[in-house]
Amino acid sequence: MPKLKTKKSAAKRFTKTGTGKLKRNKAYKSHILTKKTTKRKRNLRKATMMDKTNSKVMKKILPYI
Question: What is the pLDDT of residue 55?
Fold first, then answer.
C-alpha cells in the first residue's frame, strides 16, 4: 500500500491531543470585531475539540498527525 499524503492546509489548523481527539481554533475572530461583545471575543480565543461527526473524515485527511 502506498504512503498517504497529509493535507497540509488541515495540518496547519488541527492538532491531535494525547487521547487522539482533534483540537481546533474557533472561527469569526479575524475582522468585524466592533459589533462583537468582549465576552464573545474572549471565548473565541479558546481552542475547542473537533466535532465527533467530522473527526472520522479528518483522520483520513491527517493520517500521521
Answer: 87
